[in-house]
Design goal:
19 helices; mainly alpha; 567 residues; globular
Length: 567
């Protein structure tokens, strides 16, 4: 192919000057001003080293690259904000799902999740998950650099990954609602985001992870495809919730009577506000558009992230809608057949939608829209089956987080192994050597490398969480730090831990409240007496003989300080 040649250097210089002038005016209209030095002037000064036109072209190209990088950073921050906003969705969903006597406690724990996750991820979590991945290609079990964000140049990437870590921790909050102590909650939240979750994220998402598709030598030639976290986020959080509720036990009166005998039929504990639950569901669905499409912004194997993100958004929408309607009408059919009364259950619709969102998270960018429909359909059924199974085995999950996140997340990872399309994997991951098993069969091959990786990922995540968190929960329970005591649970954690009053709440029986107040008064008196015994002897001289005699007549310690003088 021939190239155009200017007749002489002067015409080339004039053309370059004109092009530079146009470029300068264009940039000025976009609020940037070039001072005395223009691209052409800079290039003309280097004319002895580079041709002027080549220098101008290089400068324009570099400007486009810088603009693209800036836009990517801004969109990554925006996606992080959407994901973080899901914390509000979890808070509303949990608050609406509990009884009114525990709303304040539930809200506080959701906010603590965000705070604890930020501290844990800042100090050690990010380092364990992604530390050193830019400086070495070696396969490692855990990151070893970038503690306290030292040496991190891409703060937007840190923010994005923190939002994921906080989401994983929040999943457990709803499951343990209404009966978990505050200290235990904060301890496991920091442990999960500071160590347990980062190891999973490192193994599957870091360039150095042994299961990562981004490893230079990926496992089985392909590695695990978990585009936005069905395994990393949802199976991690869901399995943590499962093991925690096994140790913590059900809420009082849910499956057993006051003497510990199994109830013939579990007692329902409906949440106090279906409006808050619905609000939380919509916020979570909205936030998922940062969760799934936003993950396309961190792809390193392709520059064509726009179509990948668009496909992820479409598949997210389809799966959620199909799963929700499937759960609603399947439950309607079952209820009508078993009770003779058709009931449109709003909870089935809401949790079905969430189950579909979780299930599509792993494969939102690598499956076709028709496959997203299938994934959502099966997710809706799996949610209903697993929710009923939990009740049958007497595991109390206040918000059905285990069916939604653990069960539907597991299905989502498996679905990628069956349904990942060659063209979609090529666009997102830069290879189509190993694809979904159904597509492999269509190729005339029985290659199940991708499906094998997905199965191994499920066992790895659940096994890792069990190895760390199950003994930790047992230890918390042994120390008496895990579960609130019976009286605190009966009067509600708002009163027990936050000093709130009953406020006319008819959920709290008056005899329980009176017993709790008597116990609190006894503790305060015992504390006061313990303090008074450490006071100097001259404090006793303040009291009159009449006061001492009156206290002795009442059977009290004559050296006690009157209530009005304490503090």
């Amino acid at each position: 192919m021939s190239t155009f040649q200017f007749p002489n250097e002067q015409e080339a210089t004039d053309f370059a000057s004109a092009a530079s002038s146009v470029f300068t005016r264009t940039l000025a209209t976009r609020t940037f001003e070039l001072a005395e030095l223009t691209i052409y002037d800079d290039c003309a000064a280097q004319a002895s080293e580079f041709p002027v036109l080549q220098c101008v072209a290089n400068a324009l190209e570099q400007g486009q690259i810088n603009n693209a990088q800036d836009a990517n950073t801004w969109f990554l921050i925006f996606a992080s904000a959407l994901i973080f906003f899901m914390q509000a969705g979890f808070a509303m969903l949990c608050a609406g799902s509990v009884r009114i006597k525990n709303v304040g406690n539930t809200m506080l724990k959701n906010l603590l999740d965000a705070c604890g996750a930020a501290v844990g991820f800042f100090t050690i979590g990010y380092a364990f998950a992604f530390g050193g991945q830019d400086s070495t290609t070696a396969t490692t079990f855990i990151g070893t650099t970038n503690f306290f964000m030292v040496g991190i140049t891409n703060q937007a990437f840190w923010l994005f990954q923190f939002a994921f870590a906080a989401t994983s921790a929040t999943i457990t909050a709803g499951t343990l609602a209404e009966r978990c102590q505050m200290a235990a909650y904060l301890c496991y939240s920091v442990l999960l985001t500071g160590f347990v979750y980062p190891v999973v994220a490192h193994s599957i998402w870091s360039n150095n992870g042994f299961l990562s598709a981004f490893n230079v030598n990926p496992f089985l030639g392909i590695g695990v495809i978990d585009f936005a976290g069905s395994a990393v986020v949802h199976i991690t959080g869901g399995s943590t919730a499962f093991f925690a509720t096994m140790i913590l036990g059900p809420r009082k009166g849910r499956f057993y009577d006051a003497r510990g005998n199994p109830l013939p039929k579990p007692k329902p504990f409906p949440g106090h506000s279906v409006a808050l639950q619905m609000l939380g569901t919509f916020i979570l669905w909205f936030g998922w558009y940062g969760f799934n499409p936003g993950s396309a912004l961190i792809l390193t194997t392709t520059l064509n992230t726009g179509p990948v993100a668009a496909l992820a958004a479409v598949n997210t929408t389809i799966s959620a809608a199909v799963a929700g309607t499937t759960a609603l009408f399947t439950n309607l059919f079952v209820e009508e057949r078993t009770t003779g009364e058709a009931k449109f259950d709003l909870l089935s619709l809401m949790n079905g939608c969430l189950g579909g969102l979780v299930a599509i998270t792993a494969g939102c960018a690598v499956v076709e829209p028709w496959a997203a429909f299938v994934i959502g359909l099966i997710a809706g059924w799996l949610y209903l089956l697993s929710s009923a199974a939990l009740i049958r085995i007497r595991l109390d999950d206040a918000v059905d987080a285990i069916p939604v996140h653990l069960v539907c997340g597991t299905w989502g990872i498996l679905a990628v192994g069956f349904l990942a399309a060659p063209d979609r994997i090529l666009a997102a991951y830069g290879t189509d050597e190993h694809v979904g098993w159904f597509y492999e069969l269509a190729r005339g091959s029985f290659n199940a490398s991708l499906l094998g990786c997905q199965i191994i990922a499920i066992f790895f995540v659940i096994g890792w969480v069990f190895f760390i968190m199950f003994p930790f929960f047992i230890w918390l329970n042994y120390m008496g730090w895990f579960r609130a005591d019976s009286l605190e649970e009966l009067v509600g954690l708002d009163i027990s831990y936050h000093g709130g009053g009953a406020g006319g709440n008819d959920e709290v029986k008056q005899e329980f409240l009176e017993a709790f107040n008597r116990r609190k008064d006894n503790k305060q008196n015992a504390h006061s007496n313990a303090q008074q015994q450490e006071m100097p002897q001259h404090y006793a001289d303040v009291y009159s003989q009449q006061e001492l005699a009156a206290r002795e007549a009442l059977g009290e310690d004559g050296m006690s300080v009157p209530n009005g003088m304490v503090g």
